[in-house]
Amino acid sequence: MENEFELFPFMELPRGILIKKDALEEVGRVCKRFHLEGTGLIVCDPVTRKIAGNKVAESLSELGYGTELIEIEGATDRSTDVVEEFVKEHGDHFLLGVGGGRPIDVAKYVAFKKDLEFLSIPTAASHDGIASSRASIEMDGRKKSIKAKAPLGVVADIDIISRAPYRLLASGCADIISNCTAVLDWKLAHRLKGEPFSEYSAALSEMTAKLVMQRAEDIKPKHTDPIRIVLKALVSSSVAMSIAGSSRPASGSEHMFAHALDAFAEDPGLHGEETGVGTIMMMYLHGGDWKSIRDSLMTIGAPVDASGLGVTEEEVVKALLEAHRIRPNRYTILGTGLEEKAAWKIAKVTGVIT
After folding, report:
1. Residue 209 near residue 251, CB atoms below 8 Å
2. Are the beta carbons of 320 and 343 closer than 8 angstroms?
3. Which of 9, 100, 161, 210 gets the most CB atoms within 10 Å of its CB?
4. Helix (H) or strand (E) holding 137
5. What's the pLDDT tens digit per position in 252-295?
6. Is 139 helix (H, G, I), strand (E, B) or coil?
7. Domain with CATH 1.20.1090.10 in the chain
């Protein structure tokens, strides 16, 4: 058996993670602790600027840092170009991504391209990319998972995140639970295609999914303890990806289904919600316990069917049929694609459609 530390020799991980109430007040001190110099460029959107961006700027200013805020419209190649040009024109910077996902993805990608330090400051626990070295960026109209820079640190303010809609927290839980099928796909690719596989990374990814499923009853609206549970699980999932140097531990056929649904549905749900529903169906294909996936999602309050996602049954089936084309070089249980009759059956048996 090959030594996985030879297959995955470089692991880019966060140096520090702060999860507490009023954590935004500590951002400046965290930057000093990391010996960061220059101006803090805060990447946010109009909403997250009001929620947290301005407070981050205040914390930096109190410790003597210069600050700049730049608002983006989405995680697109256009947004990354705007931030890159700003960095080029304004000199020495370190980046702070402030948001639920898109500002963090843009900041970490620009940090990678420009070799800058980067801090992740989530305003919602809605995705597992808050501490990973991967970014989801829309390029030429299609979302792509690309190499980025893992954050030097993560600052998560419990008060801020607790005020986010509960739907975002449930979506983050569903994204974590989707690790179950992502790892199964990875193992399958390892056995059938000889793809490099990290037991360490896979075990960490599976553990985070099991943790959320085991604590599903405790994850409820307006409670702060579940936020800590979910944030730690999201960070662990991010670290698993950083260890593997790819999104493999947390992204497989269920994510391909989600991205296909984004492309075909008129009004798709949140990313984590889509991956959760995808996980139910992909676990069925793997011959695993798909009912426990569905039950955990229902207990948390995440969607488990087309109606919950706000999409049509036809859109679900079309996404199933096209999912294998999303990342053709990534081998999963979908193989070279499903027959239409099989796609309808999978969706019906699992209750995703009626």
Report:
1. no
2. yes
3. 161
4. strand 134-139
5. 999 999 999 999 999 988 999 999 999 999 999 999 999 999 99
6. strand
7. 166-349
- pTM for this prediction: 0.90
Residues in the chain, overall count: 354
What does the angle CA 219 – CA 221 – CA 226 come to, to the nearest 5 degrees? 35
Residues 126/171, Cβ–Cβ less than 8 Å: yes
Segment 217-255, tens digit of pLDDT: 999 887 777 888 899 999 899 889 988 888 999 999 999
Could you give phi then psi for residue 322, rounded to 5 degrees?
Answer: -100, -10
Burial of residue 319 (number of CB atoms within 10 Å: 0-12, 13-18, 19+): buried
- For residue 275, CA distances in Å to 135, 278, 286, 294, 303 come to 17, 5, 16, 12, 10
Confidence (pLDDT) at 297: 98
Q: How many CB atoms lie within 10 A of CB 298?
A: 14
The SS3 assignment for 107 reads helix
Find all residues with CB under 8 Å of 303, minimum gap 6, and list them: 174, 269, 273, 276, 277, 297, 309
Helices 166-177 & 271-286 angle (0-180, nearest 10) = 30
Beta strands 93-99; 39-44: pairing state: parallel
* Architecture label for domain 10-162: 3-Layer(aba) Sandwich (3.40)
Residue matched to tokens 């500590």: 26
Give the Cα separation of 43 and 160 in Å (integer): 17
Q: CATH 3.40.50.1970 spans which residues of the chain?
A: 10-162
Number of alpha carbons in the 13 Å side-chain half-sphere of residue 222: 0
Which superfamily, per CATH, for 166-349? Dehydroquinate synthase-like - alpha domain (1.20.1090.10)
With tokens 């706000």, the residue in question is: 310
Q: Which residues contact 325 (CB under 8 A, 6 or more apart)?
A: 260, 337
Tokens 């109606």 belong to 307
Backbone φ, ψ for residue 98 (5° rounding): -120, 110
> Is the CB of residue 94 less than 8 Å from the CB of residue 119?
yes
Residue 106 in 3-state DSSP? helix
